[in-house]
Backbone:
């Protein structure tokens, strides 16, 4: 990762954006892709399947971006010490207990 990318990831981390947020956004964008495709088919009659496909592909490109940001943030969190294996195990234990 070059210095510019590392600075962007660091800034996102300082803003409170965590890897889990990026992963959730990636999952949400997958659902939004399907919704955009179906919505385009139903709300724009007469424009055909090609237009719906373009909307689906446009929104579908967001998921890999969010997942990539999630990975970058996860690596940063591991290096920063804010995401460790112990923290993950502690969170799982709290979830089981609560």
Residues:
């Amino acid at each position: 990762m070059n210095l510019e990318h590392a600075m962007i990831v660091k800034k996102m981390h300082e803003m409170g954006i965590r890897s889990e947020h990026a992963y959730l956004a990636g999952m949400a964008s997958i659902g939004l892709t399907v919704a955009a495709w179906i919505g385009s088919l139903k709300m724009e009659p007469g424009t055909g399947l090609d237009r719906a496909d373009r909307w689906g592909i446009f929104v579908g490109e967001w998921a890999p971006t969010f997942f990539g940001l999630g990975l970058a943030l996860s690596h940063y969190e591991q290096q920063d010490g804010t995401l460790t294996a112990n923290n993950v195990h502690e969170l799982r234990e709290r979830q089981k207990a609560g």
In short: Residues 19-43 form the longest helix (25 residues). The mean pLDDT is 82.
